[in-house]
Amino acid sequence: MGFSLSPLAQQNGFRMEAFDTVGSTNAVALERAQAGDPGRLWVVSKKQESGRGRRGRAWATSHGNLAASLLLTGTFELKTAATLGFVAGLSLADALDAVCPQGAVSLGVDGIGSSVSDLRVELKWPNDLLANKAKLAGILLESTHLPDGRFAVVVGIGVNVVAYPEDVPYPATSLKQLGAACDAETLFLALSDAWQENSRIWDEGRGLAEIRKRWLKRAAGIGSEVAVRVDGSVLRGIFETIDEDCRFVIRDNDGERVKIAAGDVHFGAVASASAG
């Protein structure tokens, strides 16, 4: 089975460029934008060799994982475009709900079985997706100005379908590890479909309040202790919510309510071990 777009995505004018192996789907999408592509283009691959994560971190994927980048062009504000990460997270979570089979069993390293029907998918601010508290996917937004005065934004989505990195300072997992019999092509088909509904609700930022409401229903760590690394310093407190602009809101140790626009978030034991 090869990659394909959902019928609804095709009806709405979305296109796709698929690779078996690629350096970076985000880089290809940005190149297409500079070459005059009108947008609504998905660039997808089952292997990414030189991808990028947040803050310039390397993000390579094993063959069989999903790397998908969506190129969009427009005139809306960059601040508004930044909230597309929340649209992407919701769309991926909805896609996983659609394709993960119920009742499949995975045996962990301790020999204990876990059922996919018990899978807990959560969204971790700003742009990660967790499955049973371990990182399953990451999202990276990049943008560029175009010669005609518009700008392009690329929504990059990387999912650990068959393998996950083991040399990272946080728990990670893959769909295979969780017992889900789903391949990259099946997941992308569902993702391209789920994007249609969530982007319709988002409506170039006009529906952000509803996106925020939906995101909070899937949010990881609300009410728990958190440490946020911001520009070399660490803020600690309790994660309360995200505000109307999707900023991270914590109640710090002095009882003050702090709003954070960008930072690395760590919960619980990982907060103590990794963010200090």
TrEMBL record:
<dbReference type="InterPro" id="IPR008988">
    <property type="entry name" value="Transcriptional_repressor_C"/>
</dbReference>
<feature type="domain" description="BPL/LPL catalytic">
    <location>
        <begin position="24"/>
        <end position="160"/>
    </location>
</feature>
<keyword id="KW-0436">Ligase</keyword>
<dbReference type="GO" id="GO:0005524">
    <property type="term" value="F:ATP binding"/>
</dbReference>
<keyword id="KW-0092">Biotin</keyword>
<dbReference type="GO" id="GO:0004077">
    <property type="term" value="F:biotin--[biotin carboxyl-carrier protein] ligase activity"/>
</dbReference>
<dbReference type="InterPro" id="IPR003142">
    <property type="entry name" value="BPL_C"/>
</dbReference>
<keyword id="KW-0547">Nucleotide-binding</keyword>
<keyword id="KW-0067">ATP-binding</keyword>
<dbReference type="Pfam" id="PF03099">
    <property type="entry name" value="BPL_LplA_LipB"/>
</dbReference>
<dbReference type="Pfam" id="PF02237">
    <property type="entry name" value="BPL_C"/>
</dbReference>
<dbReference type="InterPro" id="IPR004143">
    <property type="entry name" value="BPL_LPL_catalytic"/>
</dbReference>
<dbReference type="InterPro" id="IPR004408">
    <property type="entry name" value="Biotin_CoA_COase_ligase"/>
</dbReference>
<dbReference type="GO" id="GO:0005737">
    <property type="term" value="C:cytoplasm"/>
</dbReference>
<feature type="domain" description="Biotin protein ligase C-terminal">
    <location>
        <begin position="222"/>
        <end position="267"/>
    </location>
</feature>
<dbReference type="InterPro" id="IPR045864">
    <property type="entry name" value="aa-tRNA-synth_II/BPL/LPL"/>
</dbReference>
<protein>
    <recommendedName>
        <fullName>biotin--[biotin carboxyl-carrier protein] ligase</fullName>
        <ecNumber>6.3.4.15</ecNumber>
    </recommendedName>
</protein>
